[in-house]
Specification:
cell projection, cilium, CFAP36, elongated, mainly alpha, coiled coil
């Protein structure tokens, strides 16, 4: 059995990918474009809005697409 340290490059590669532009740019762009809809009310609560589910589904699909 190999020592755990010999497989550390797999974790390092994954972390590098998740911090890189291929992953971050599309997700950050999506978040910036959609975030205004999620403005809290005066008391700090976020109202239940049917549009939230649609946007969440879009975000989820984007993440799944990036993972493939």
């Amino acid at each position: 059995m190999e020592p755990l340290d010999s497989n550390a490059w797999v974790f390092d590669s994954l972390v590098g990918f998740l911090h890189g532009p291929v992953w971050n740019v599309p997700l950050q762009t999506f978040i910036e474009e959609k975030s205004l809809l999620f403005e809290p009310t005066d008391n700090g609560e976020v109202m239940d809005n049917p549009e939230y589910k649609r946007i969440h589904e879009e975000y989820r699909n984007l993440v799944i697409k990036k993972l493939k």
